[in-house]
Amino acid sequence: MPCYRLDGLTPVVHPSAYVHPSAVLIGDVLVGANCYIGPLASLRGDFGRIILEEGANLQDTCVMHGFPGGDTVVERNGHIGHGAVLHGCRIGEDALVGMNAVVMDAAHIAPRCIVAATAFVKAGFECPQQHLVVGAPAVAKRPLSDQELAWKQRGTAEYHSLARRCLSALVECPPLTAPEQDRPRMGDSGFRPKAEGGA
């Protein structure tokens, strides 16, 4: 992976975390156990500290950055959808930020919240735990049901499994020129191992 020391600070990646080779880590970046960082993600610890706690995932083309002296944090089992931008904010434990959402400085997404896709969360925003956050500017619209939270948790468990799969089985290779006969599909019985716990 492109990994860069800056001013004596080297990114830290736990051995059980998976970071795609095209993701970029710069400076003061801390990636915890069982995290997944997707293709083309950018974690710029060149001003403030970037932290992904255990089990967090940061998907394709996401950006994490912040102001000098501050932290940008995704807490344990946080789930950051494709293309999201996090700047100087804190995403609470077991929360989800949807695709192409933006969360700005000093905003705090409380634990077990879901930020809708394309939401714009203004600087300093706060919300109650286990709420749906929507809009531009974003507001806490309503409490989340336990069923909605369980849906989020199943998705996060899939990314825990994906981190393990990529560490053990992802191999760079040239493409084939034609599909194989009887080509299996991801998820076919016997082709893809299930996540621990049967998820």
From TrEMBL:
Record keywords, A-Z: Hydrolase
GO molecular function: hydrolase activity
Signal peptide range in chain numbering: none
SUPFAM superfamilies for the chain: Trimeric LpxA-like enzymes
Biased composition (Basic and acidic residues): 180-199
One Pfam family named in its UniProt record: Hexapep
Source organism superkingdom: Bacteria
Membrane spanning residue stretches: none
UniProt xrefs under CDD domains: LbH_paaY_like (cd04745)
Spans annotated as Disordered: 177-199
Enzyme Commission numbers on file: 3.1.2.-
InterPro entries tied to this protein: Hexapep, PaaY, Transf_Hexapept/Carb_Anhydrase, Trimer_LpxA-like_sf
PANTHER family to which the protein is assigned, alphabetical: DYNACTIN SUBUNIT P25, GAMMA CARBONIC ANHYDRASE-LIKE 1, MITOCHONDRIAL-RELATED
Protein name per the record: Phenylacetic acid degradation protein
Record gene name: paaY
